[in-house]
Amino acid sequence: MSLIVDSLCGTFNSSGSLAQTSFPYTLELVPVEIAGLPGVHSYAWAQHEGKWLVAGGRKDGMHARQPFNAFPAQENNTEIYVIDPLSKEFWSSEFAERAYICSHSISSLFRA
User: pTM (2 decimals)?
Assistant: First the structure.
């Protein structure tokens, strides 16, 4: 299933009308479904040799509209994911564990 997003072909002005009506390209979104991969949003990502690295972000979908509960810590994504979209596999590791290893390795460079 693919979705062509034609509404991105222009910019809406304050009156709600389309300010630009032609665009030299279209955008096609093709979903990739990977069993067991949890949903996250607002994450950082990178791509290397066809694999995706996803870190950070949130697990809770739309955040609450209450200032005291808008971004509860328990909904932070604490995993790092490596995703292979071709084989539809993924691997994960706890971010805090990797952060400790990284910070420990870096701090060892500065020891006398």
Answer: 0.60
